[in-house]
Amino acid sequence: MSLRTSMLCVAIGFAALATTVQVSAEDGKFHFTVLDDPQAVPPSIGTRANAINDLGVVAGDYQASGMFHGFVSTPPYSNTSYTTVDGPGSSDLWAINLRGVVTGYYFDASGVPHGMVSRPPYTLVTSFDAPGACEDNICNGGTNSVSINLEGVIGGSFGDANAVSHGFVSYPPYNETNFTTLDAPGACSSGSACSGSGTFVESNSLTDLGAVTGYYADASQVVHGFVSYPPYSKTNFTTSDAPGACEDDVASCIGTFNGTYPACINLWGVITGTYYGADSVGHGFVSYPPYTKSTFTSFDAPGSPLLTFPLGINLEGVITGYFLDSEGVGHGFVSYRPYGKTNFTTLDAPRACSSGSACSGLGTFPEAINLEGQITGFYVDASGSRHSFVAHQ
User: Fold this and answer.
1) I need a surface site. Which of 105, 202, 205, 207 has the fewest CB within 10 A?
2) pTM higher than 0.90
3) Quick check: helix, strand or coil at residue 178?
């Protein structure tokens, strides 16, 4: 039920060489550098950047010979700047810290994901499994490692034998005694009746101070946001529900998995993400401690978007993500305080399929932003080919 994964299931394809181009944005010029791993040759579906650290080092994945491979690319993102980082199977990288340590997961021959971590020069990859993670492809379990902080602490989620999700935090050396399970109070967290529910932690969701954000689905299949702090006991969880989001006392929300979905958190504890009301339309939000309803600000992309989906926030409070227009086309954005439509810049990569019903499900999809304001993500062109990028002003 990962919102990030489900919403980014778009048509993707092969990408070519690295180039730098420029596009006019609404309040200035953004420069786009296209990142295409040189090993992603036809019939590959291309290259996808998922994370960027404050030094501009990018991590993501590309496809070659029918398998996905993790990669790290350093500025200036030339064809010689790519390093492949693979686990024992098809691999995806989802996070990179300031030291260049990356984490993600690989899939074994049965299609079960296992966590992985690697540090420069990426010659050694350490794999790990959360205690209690189901390692059978029938149970839709496995370990999904998607966040890492400066100290090498990793966050993510795992699925148990009943296909119930549990968040986790793990510390080096990532053995079973160094895992802490995160089950939010109120989450449907055990038994077959909770299949598909539980507690979820996404990428960009773990700070250098150890604060974690995510969301959980309760027994009514309504979703609530949370923030948790070390030592991650039940008393260290704060529920964060956006005003207007689905809650359990709204009959039309029961069983919909609508609600509040925090996607990321910065060092100040500011969270951003998407919430869904009874109308099932996704609205962007930003909130700060103590995460009461009065601390929430809602914002939408201009026009009549089907979804506004923030995915990254930096220390300065600059937010990036994407929105889907009325025809389902994806457009990147940058939003600045006070997060109104007057402080909203649309980012369309120059060669992205960006208008018309033929581009539905295609477009520009930023994933993360660093302290310098560099944005990384990917775009899909009119042929369905996928290309990664770094954009900056």
Assistant:
1) 207
2) yes
3) helix
